[in-house]
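Notes continue from the previous slide.

Worked example: a multi-chain complex. Inputs as given:
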Amino acid sequence: MDLFLQLTFAGLAIGSIYSCVALAVVMIYQATDHFNFAQGEMAMFSTFIAWTMLGLGLPIWVAFFLAVAISFVAGVLIERIVVRPVENAPVLNQIIVFIGLLVIFNSVAGWIWEYTIKPFPSLFPKSFGFETTLISAHNIGVIGLTLIVLAMVFAFFRFTRVGLAMRAAAANPDSARLVGISVGWMLALGWGLAAAIGAVGGVLVAPIVYLEPNMMSGVLLYGFAGALLGGVSSPGGAVLGGLVVGVLENWVGQYVPGGAELKLTFALVLIVGVLMFKPAGLFGRIVVKRV
Amino acid sequence: MALLEVKGLKAYYRQTEALHGIDFSLDEGSITTILGANGAGKTTTLRAICRMIRTEGEIRFDGQDITGLSTERVVSRGIAHVPEGRGTFVRQSVIENLQLGAYTRRNKAEIAADIERVYGYFPRLRERHAQQAGTLSGGEQQMLAIGRALMLRPKLMLLDEPSFGLAPLIVQEIYGIMARIRDAEGTSMLLVEQNANIALNLADHAYLLETGAVVMSGESAIIRDDENVRRSYLGY
């Protein structure tokens, strides 16, 4: 029973990181109808930035907040400079741009910081003042911090003027322009937010998977699986999907024979299964468009 | 002085010229209607004013040329466009739609007061304020679209076929409210319609558009009595 609970809690922790990635992916998907394949590599790059600042002697929380802020700005700039020019280009061109970004971030990170794996410290203390063998202090912190971040993101979209404008711009760009919203800037802001949320996920996952340029490849895949499972048209669903995927991943790894080796395969099976049997995901809606 | 003055306006969809150099103007506080059949260029004219398509020629609003502005800049100058098909934000609630209409404004107290004012014109929107706009009836969506435009406190409203797809009684109700808005707020309106009869009853001036060119213009009363107009557009 202890093992089962340990697996479940660890799954919730890693799952909440998948939720961050899933939410970042869904935010951009809602506004542009495309998956940003580079989301994971952007988060990896953000984590390296935090690591560099740690090396300069900054406290870890300062490094964390600075990395998140820099990622936000970088996300805005990437949208303005790289994504904007292909906004109206055919789908294939846009996908190539996303994959190009992925490769560029990966190689540049390898070039600057090399491919050797590096340990990354946890944001959280060794203990929160009570003893338990069921969940590590880092994992408690991960779950707590992602819950706070996700709550802030939802409050922003739900209760602020700019959040409402971003939703409107994503849902109906033409009408958004007609009420005076600058749709282009809302998209850029969305990219900035997605990059910042991804950075949070990167810094939280680095102590678990170790820091290296390829550290996000698995995480991104699970994040995609979570987004699809919850429904790419539902941000809340994507968050829940990330958590479910995290827990399932751990259960499969322990209880399914050969599961430990097949963890990533499980993510792919889940993606294909959802697309085949419930393409809108658990909480998504099938968009019906009048033609 | 003319609030809106259009000279030699040409508009293009890709390479195709949809407006062949039209001239018209609209006086402050007045309602002007643009009539014409399907494909005459009515919607195109409104889209041109809001900078949603490529154009040549001059569009002066409030004495200033607006052809170099983006759509959102034109809107913040005080032009509210109620587009073809209403363009409501279907997944947002009624009240969120109204808040979006006031996006260019900052004063929260004034915005709240204006939402009440819109509910005054359209009591049914108050009843449905928490409902997703997509669940409203066609008539209610049209009311919401007009209400959202009012939230800008516009100097000029562009209305694209507010009667489209609605039952005659609802159309009458909406046109009645538009008249009340004109009287109470002094808002100028540029109204595009296929339903010539009801538009001519509301408007002061009318322009008749045929395949991208103005073929007739004048006071509504005179246009209405014109033999050819009656036969072609009013059907009696």
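Summary box: The domain at 1-56+165-236 of chain B is CATH 3.40.50.300 (Rossmann fold). Chain B is about 40% helix and 30% strand.
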